Structures are given as C-alpha cells and as structure tokens.
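F.,

This is the one I mentioned.
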C-alpha cells in the first residue's frame, strides 16, 4: 500500500486508544483535570460500568467561555507553554490529550462556568464533532458527561469486561486519588448506589477507613521519613496484614497515582522475611520529590514515571518502611480485640522475676496485678515485650507471660529467626563457623546440582560447606556450617543447590533461610526451662523478632481483657 496521511477521524481514534483504554481511563483524566482546577469536592457517577454514562462534577475554577471550545483541540493545554516546562511538571495533566481523546470516542457534553463569569457555557460533542454551543446557568465549576463510550470504536468496545469488573476498576482508581488527595471530598456513585465517599478531612487514615474499612486501617503503621529533598510518608500494614495479590499496594508520587515495579519491589524487600512466601503487603506510600527530579512524561496515560536518582529513591522507600516495621509492628493477637466502647485501661501484669544472689540461691517470686494507662507500643524502644516462661505446650509452643496477657511462642519459628540473623551477621563479618566431619558424607548430585556446585564453590566455602568431586555424580561433603552439625546437612545442601540451579539470582538468600530453618529446634522437641528462657532472650535481641525468616509469626498474644471476656469475669 502507498504511504498516505491518515484521516483526521482515524488518527484521533488511534490517539484516543493510547489514553482511553477503558472507562476507568476516562474517569482518571477527568479527575485529574478537576484536581488541577483546584476543586475541593468531586462527584463521579457511572452507569453500566462507565460504558453508558460517566459524569464528573467538580467545584473547581471552571473554563472561561472563550476558551471552552479550544479545550477540545488536540494538544491544547493551560498547564505549560514550552518544552522547557516539561522539566518541572507540577500538574497532573499537561499534554492536552484527555478531553479531545474522550470526545472522539463518545457522546460528550460539558457545562462549565468560572466564578468571575455570570453564566456558563454548554458544549455538545459527538465523535469529536462539535454539535452545539449554548449559554446556560450553572454553579461555578465543571460538569463533564460522557455517554456511550466507544460507540464508534466497536473493536475496543468488545474487549471491555463485565459491568461489575469495569466498575471495580473505576472504584479502585477513585480510591487511589482519594489517598493522593485526602483533602478532597470524593464521592463515587455506580448505578445509583454510593460505592465510596471520602471524608475530605486531610487525614489519610480516615480516608483509608472509608476505602478499606476500620479493620484493615487499624493494622496500618504510619511512615514518615525525610532524606534531603525526598519525603516518604503514608501507611503500611503490619506483617500480620497481607494479601494474595498486590491490589492494595498504592504508590503515589507528587500526588499522582503510579505503577512502578522498582518501588513495588523496594516495598516488598522491606518486608523481607516478615511475610509468608507469595503474600503481598498492604500499603499507601506517598513520595514527595522535587518535580525536576522525576519525569512523568514517559507513558501515554501518565501511569509510569522515571526518577533521576532511582537508586536513592529505591533505598529511601526500603529504609523508611523497614524502620517502621521493626520499630512499631505489634504482636499478632489470637482473636479480635474488644470493641472500643467496652475496653478499659489496659491491665498490665507485672511478671514474676527469679533473682539469684551471689551464692546462686533463688530469690522469692513476686506477682502483682495493677492498672495503668495504655502504653503506645510505637513509642516503646522494645521490638518485643519481655516475657516470662511458664511452660511448653505440645512440645512446640512456649507458654509465656508478658505485659497485658499471655504469649504463645513458636519455638521453631523463633529459633529460625535467631539463627537467620546470626548467620547473616557472621556472613558479613569474618565468615561463618565451619565444622569438619570425621568421616566425609557422600552425595549423589543431579547435573543441575553439580553445575551449581561448580558455579558457586567459592561462596559455598565461605558459608561453611567444603565439597569436592568423588567421581561421576558422587561428591564428598567434608565440612559443614557449625549450626548444622546436629542436623541433616546433606538434605539442607540438596535444597540449597536445587534453589541455586533454578534461580541463581536469589540462591544465596534462599540458602541462608534454608540453613536457619534446618538448624532450628523442631516442633515436637522438648525443651528445658533454661533452654526456653535462653531462646526468648536471644529472640528479644534480634532485629525482627515477630516473624521467622519465611514470614510466619513467631508469637501470638491473648490479652488480659480477652481472657477475662472468655472466662466471663466481666
């Protein structure tokens, strides 16, 4: 076919396809325009998943009557004037593509009035063609109504999902902008029902309550870190709060909701060893960065950004979230706490102490119950409460007593956390302690495992394994890490080599976790009282005592109030 210039209508529809992928895309562009117009309240109404109707009403600055038609010309904008302005974008929209793109694939009306003008202007556009322009009375602000979206582009229409699915995408988008702009009152109605209403108080926590519910919100911890010109703030879930997917990870940059694999990875890395495998955290993180250090002009729909100092941003997010988790994450409770109206000041139990004098004689036990005001765990420097050992349950759980009630500690998970951090510290120091075997152990390795041994021989030696070929697929294991001498080092090494063969990028991390797991005390192993005391003391000294290296909880808590409720002492 010969080269020719596309028809204007076809070109407009192709351009619209880049900006308006689905109804939620149109809602996004209209919300951004309302925010840029200085709106304090935005109301969104959709019908039929946004296909039949999208209406966005705001109380922003409005558009002057003489500029209303120009707003629908491609690449017309009031938000920048030169290419130099692209280096410092401070608005959500700037390309001038949103309104003309939406209008080219729908039947659109816009009613708008600035405060300084006595009457508004109404425009009717269908498939990109202006059909009517007339004066109308209206309150200050703008109302954009989009009907029959994609009516003239059936190829895109047929790929839309069910109405409920498209409505879900819109609801998720609206909530994200409510998180980005908690000062805004945003209301979403779908087919006549109110799906979401943000309070507009400026408090992110209250907005999260409105979006995700109080049960989720109360498990979130505040993040607030400033490093030079970069500020990281928001809310992140305690390790006990996790999801099967990443839908409740909200990333915001300078008030803009974005998708960024690097930032998502930084967030997940902050939860390293704190979450079970395959689970995702819950978080709302807002980054404030000087506009000249972030490029928002890298994606047609402005959903991705590029950072000038990407490594610094990655590290700042990881440090901020990790610091919050290690300093303030609570111990998981056995059951839901009492409702606020039935709670009383916390009954703190002063645990018994066993003191030894210089002759080794035990002092007298003291036990006292008293009331005191509730203590904010986030202000406490301790990473876990001090515990007194009471006994062992099912040769698996250590029963202990601490401030506010009873704690059950999983002995295997606790010991795994202790060994994991100890191994990391030894590996970063002078090297891990290795123990030579009196008689070498023989191992039959698969070709993949043998290849992993050859590739990582030096690193394996640094971690305490001394392996040498013995002919064919047989290898001799002559030395093992000291922590494995009482376990099955062959089994542990097979697991590590299998991980190394499948994923060489993360094999060393998996190796340390596997080593800690196989070296830890087992469920079903009876421990003496002194062993249990030592275990809890060492757990208290770790950086992240509340989870094992696999992200499982090391302990759960039942408060004194819960015990009293169960025994009906109230």
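My design for it:
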């Amino acid at each position: 076919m010969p080269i020719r210039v596309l028809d204007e209508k076809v070109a407009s529809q192709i351009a619209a396809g880049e900006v308006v992928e689905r109804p939620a895309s149109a809602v996004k562009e209209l919300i951004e325009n309302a925010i840029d117009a200085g709106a304090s309240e935005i109301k969104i109404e959709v019908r039929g998943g946004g296909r039949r109707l999208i209406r966005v009403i705001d109380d922003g600055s409005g558009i002057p009557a003489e500029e209303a038609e120009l707003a629908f010309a491609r690449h017309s904008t009031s938000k920048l004037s030169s290419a130099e302005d692209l280096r410092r974008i401070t608005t959500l929209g700037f390309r001038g593509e949103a309104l003309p793109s939406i209008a080219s694939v729908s039947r659109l009306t816009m009613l708008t009035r600035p405060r300084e003008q006595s009457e508004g202007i109404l425009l009717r556009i269908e498939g990109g063609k202006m059909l009517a322009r007339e004066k109308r009375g209206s309150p200050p602000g703008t109302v954009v109504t989009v009907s029959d979206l994609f009516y003239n582009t059936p190829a895109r229409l047929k790929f839309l999902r069910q109405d409920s699915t498209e409505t879900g995408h819109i609801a998720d988008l609206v909530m994200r902008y409510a998180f980005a702009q908690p000062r805004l009152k945003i209301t979403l109605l779908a087919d006549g029902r109110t799906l979401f209403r943000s309070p507009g108080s400026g408090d992110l926590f209250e907005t999260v309550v409105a979006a995700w519910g109080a049960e989720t919100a109360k498990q979130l911890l505040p993040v607030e870190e400033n490093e030079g010109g970069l500020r990281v703030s928001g809310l992140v879930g305690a390790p006990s709060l996790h999801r099967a997917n990443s839908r409740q990870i909200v990333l915001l940059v300078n008030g803009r909701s974005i998708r960024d694999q690097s930032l998502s990875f930084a967030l997940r890395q902050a939860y390293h060893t704190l979450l079970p495998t395959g689970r995702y955290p819950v978080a709302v993180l807002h980054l404030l960065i000087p506009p000249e250090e972030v490029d928002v002009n890298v994606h047609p729909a402005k959903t991705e950004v590029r950072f000038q100092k990407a490594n610094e941003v990655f590290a700042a997010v990881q440090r901020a979230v990790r610091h919050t988790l290690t300093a303030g994450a609570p111990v998981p409770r056995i059951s839901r706490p009492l409702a606020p109206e039935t709670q009383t000041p916390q009954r703190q139990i002063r645990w018994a102490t066993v003191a030894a004098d210089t002759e080794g004689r035990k002092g007298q036990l003291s036990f006292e119950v008293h009331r005191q005001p509730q203590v904010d765990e986030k202000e406490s420097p301790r990473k876990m409460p001090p515990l007194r050992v009471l006994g062992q349950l099912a040769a698996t759980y250590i029963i202990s007593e601490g401030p506010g009630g009873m704690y059950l500690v999983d002995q295997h998970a606790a010991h795994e956390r202790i060994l994991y951090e100890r191994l990391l510290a030894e590996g970063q120091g002078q090297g891990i302690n290795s123990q030579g075997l009196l008689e070498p152990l023989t191992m039959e390795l698969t070709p993949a495992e043998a290849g992993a041994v050859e590739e990582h021989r030096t690193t394996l030696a640094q971690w305490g394994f001394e392996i040498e070929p013995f002919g064919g697929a047989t290898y001799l294991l002559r030395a093992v890490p000291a922590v494995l001498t009482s376990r099955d080092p062959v089994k542990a090494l097979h697991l590590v080599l299998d991980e190394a063969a499948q994923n060489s990028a993360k094999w060393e991390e998996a190796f340390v976790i596997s080593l800690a797991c196989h070296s830890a005390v087992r469920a079903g192993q009876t421990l003496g009282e002194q062993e249990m005391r030592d275990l809890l003391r060492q757990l208290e000294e770790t950086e992240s005592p509340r989870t094992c290296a696999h992200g499982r909880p090391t302990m759960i808590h039942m408060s004194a109030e819960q015990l009293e409720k169960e025994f009906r002492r109230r």
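The chain has 16 helices and 26 strands.

Talk soon.
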